[in-house]
């Protein structure tokens, strides 16, 4: 799978989870963090 396809699939999956589970409301502030695992 190419990098662009991976990013697209990952973004779509995350979006579906957020919308499907109503995790956030309009106007809320959200912090996102990622770890490189080191």
From TrEMBL:
Keywords: Transferase. Gene3D superfamilies: HUPs. GO terms for molecular function: transferase activity; tRNA binding. InterPro entries: Rossmann-like_a/b/a_fold. One of its GO terms (biological process) is tRNA wobble position uridine thiolation. PANTHER family: ATPASES OF THE PP SUPERFAMILY-RELATED, CYTOPLASMIC TRNA 2-THIOLATION PROTEIN 1. This is Uncharacterized protein. It comes from Nymphaea colorata.
